[in-house]
Target: tRNA (cytidine/uridine-2'-O-)-methyltransferase TrmJ
Amino acid sequence: MAGTDKQQPMLAEGPAIILVEPQLGENIGMVARAMANFGLAELRLVNPRDGWPNEKAQAAASRADHIIDAVTTFDTAADAIADLNFVYATTARPRDNFKPVRGPVEASMELRNRFSADQKTGILFGRERWGLTNEEVSLADEIVTFPVNPAFASLNIAQAVLLMSYEWMKTGDQAVRPPQAQMIPAPKEHIENLMSYLDRVLDERGYFRTDDKKPKMMDNLRALFTRPGFSIEELAVLRGVFSSLEKFSPWKPRGSGAPERD
Amino acid sequence: MAGTDKQQPMLAEGPAIILVEPQLGENIGMVARAMANFGLAELRLVNPRDGWPNEKAQAAASRADHIIDAVTTFDTAADAIADLNFVYATTARPRDNFKPVRGPVEASMELRNRFSADQKTGILFGRERWGLTNEEVSLADEIVTFPVNPAFASLNIAQAVLLMSYEWMKTGDQAVRPPQAQMIPAPKEHIENLMSYLDRVLDERGYFRTDDKKPKMMDNLRALFTRPGFSIEELAVLRGVFSSLEKFSPWKPRGSGAPERD
Model:
């Protein structure tokens, strides 16, 4: 899926991603890369097991250096979110507490609204093995949880960050919607021209068999070539195929003088 | 984010995920895991570099054994989608062809609607380094591409599968559009038969002019006849038109002995 365009401005804004006691450098790197993919920039680490900086994280981050180089570290989750106005805690399932529980779409819209209002926001992600403590969850304003298959819920931390980053980008004005290669159906006269042409060349070849069958068969042909909404360009390719089949005989090196054209 | 609940029924349905020439077993395993997280089940591999089965894939799949054990392998992308009615190709960016380009949300809704109408669907994912060939893209009905940061578009294959699987699962919550009285696109093998036929009869007539132009022209033809999602019945009518043009000369009462057939 590589396709980086260095001409484009680097998106780098939005909520801080906060990893609490991450163990594996690879995961930190993959988180940075997921953030870069979807325009997030600020990564905070709480007490990473192998210290910081971490070579494995740098390697796994691929070229997300702008994120790795700007990482800040903290001793506790409370320290890491001290300057933020609004914080989500991610959990694998709703916990028994009084916080609202959101899905990723709803949470991302909330984050986008607060971002637009110049609030500082963040999302807390827990340890690889057992997530956030109840105390850490209690630091957050709301909970976000993912709509996974209840029988197989094993999102890793980089995947969870990827989904939140992706939803964040989707909420943005600058979210890059794939340009619609919108097909414009050809004006109907192009279809009529095609039908006149087919009427002639098929009639010449006995395609319609009997005169009374012809109107229904023409209706079927018109339906066939109208239904797809062919563009002018597509109709031109189609016409080229018909012409080739109609005008040219198979070229056979028999030297028998088989006619090139009818 | 662990939180698997063995009491819950395992979701296992929806579009087939098709990986074309995947190189790393770890990626295949991560793909299986992403699929399991979001309730997909059917994984097809086209010509995996290290053969199949693959120990590294099994290890990386964690406990997604039901997916790994059911993997099927194929020699070509065309073979892998032969029985499917509707197929997406994933690309890093829109290509220069006639296919509609969708985002993941829109594509997932389309897949969900077709699933509800008992159609068989699939999503093609390309090689780790350079994706799908133009010819492989031309096999698909539509393209899906991801709204990534244009300046940092480096989704790996497991992440791309994760996002599509996640969007697929999200569409399950929503009211699905009432099934439309829509045409069921013919299984892909019907398109392949048509292409083989056209390859032969057009080649015989010098349609492709030069050998180096032929692959691109064939891609365009495949795009032209794939895009409308022709039903089996429509393809039969189309084939009848081609046959008539190809086999029969205009009947002209000149008595010149023009051949009735080639």
In short: The domain at 16-171 of chain A is CATH 3.40.1280.10 (Alpha/beta knot). Chain A touches chain B through 85 residues (CB under 8 Å).
